[in-house]
């Protein structure tokens, strides 16, 4: 396509004597490139995505006389159909992960954000065997969106896909309920998506859901937060495959630290705890922390007798000098487990 458009623009340049160019840029850079081009007085006549590149034809409007512009309309091929809303939003989202970009007004008007939406991040945990196109019908069926018109499916990479779902498609969620009830319901939907792919596509998917979004302008910031949490979970909690953005704040915090600072923390804790905790001890502590230091609930989640759990905690206290049942000691142990996994 690039060669075809280059030949066509050369013909138009010869016929009109005016500047017209065809350029090729990375798809991730396209929203920012287009914005900069238009701010300088440029006008994009048409563009097309080809693999991971965007090819576009542009002119600088002020350089074109009225007669040349009239001739242009006769010489240039019919413009391509406007890219889909999902593609435009995906391109903007990709670019916004690098640096904050305002949502283009035209895109905002096309989106017509009339109700709150849930934002999910679906992340493949292994090397993708196919692109997202073939499995989107699974999601569309799951959310009773057979024509893929109500949800927005935004594949930002081969591994990551953002999914925007209007709350009208959640029949069991009442937004007038407490935030905790809404978050629990969203986690159940996230678990359902994870199970859907595990059973129907035989693919392991990490699914993270955000709290309800009120405005489209919140989208880029929260998408970046979900990506950061997914990265932290892959690093520190690889067995956690369903999560909410309001969870695992400690892991997300440590994952955001500069390498030099996180390295200093790790060295300090290695000196404090020279003997590493075993996998059983780490699992025991994780259950205790997950259940807010509630011994009975932690024992139940581990399928252990309460006395067996107490025995394990005593052994940890004997080894580390810290009692996991005390909040201050538990905090240090929580950090020790985290840094050991880093």
Automatic annotation (TrEMBL):
It comes from the Bacteria. Residues 283-337 form the PucR C-terminal helix-turn-helix domain. InterPro entries: CdaR-like_regulators, Homeodomain-like_sf, PucR_C-HTH_dom, PucR_C-HTH_sf. Coiled coil: none annotated. This is PucR family transcriptional regulator. It comes from Brevibacillus fluminis.
């Amino acid at each position: 396509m690039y060669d075809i458009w280059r030949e066509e623009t050369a013909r138009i340049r010869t016929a009109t004597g005016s500047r017209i160019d065809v350029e090729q840029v990375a798809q991730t850079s396209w929203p920012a490139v287009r914005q900069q081009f238009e701010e300088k007085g440029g006008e994009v006549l048409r563009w097309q995505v080809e693999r991971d590149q965007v090819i576009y034809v542009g002119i600088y409007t002020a350089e074109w006389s009225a007669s040349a512009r009239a001739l242009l309309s006769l010489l240039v091929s019919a413009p391509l159909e406007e890219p889909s809303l999902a593609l435009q939003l995906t391109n903007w989202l990709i670019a916004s992960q690098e640096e904050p970009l305002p949502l283009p007004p035209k895109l905002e008007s096309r989106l017509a954000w009339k109700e709150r939406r849930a934002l999910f991040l679906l992340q493949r945990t292994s090397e993708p065997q196919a692109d997202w196109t073939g499995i989107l019908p699974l999601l569309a069926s799951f959310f009773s969106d057979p024509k893929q018109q109500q949800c927005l499916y935004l594949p930002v990479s081969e591994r990551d896909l953002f999914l925007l779902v209007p709350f009208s498609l959640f029949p069991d969620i009442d937004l007038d309920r407490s935030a905790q009830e809404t978050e629990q319901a969203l986690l159940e939907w996230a678990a359902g998506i994870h199970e859907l792919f595990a059973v129907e596509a035989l693919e392991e998917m990490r699914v993270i859901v955000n709290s309800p979004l009120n405005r489209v302008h919140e989208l880029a910031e929260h998408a970046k937060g979900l990506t950061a949490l997914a990265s932290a979970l892959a690093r520190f909690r690889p067995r956690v495959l369903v999560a909410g953005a309001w969870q695992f704040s400690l892991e997300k915090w440590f994952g955001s630290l500069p390498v030099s600072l996180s390295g200093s923390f790790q060295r300090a804790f290695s000196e404090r705890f020279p003997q590493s905790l075993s996998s059983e001890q780490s699992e025991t502590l994780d259950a205790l922390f997950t259940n807010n230091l509630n011994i009975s609930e932690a024992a139940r989640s581990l399928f252990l007798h309460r006395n067996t759990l107490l025995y394990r905690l005593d052994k940890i206290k004997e080894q580390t000098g810290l009692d996991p049942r005390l909040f201050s000691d538990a905090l240090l142990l929580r950090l020790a487990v985290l840094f050991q996994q880093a």
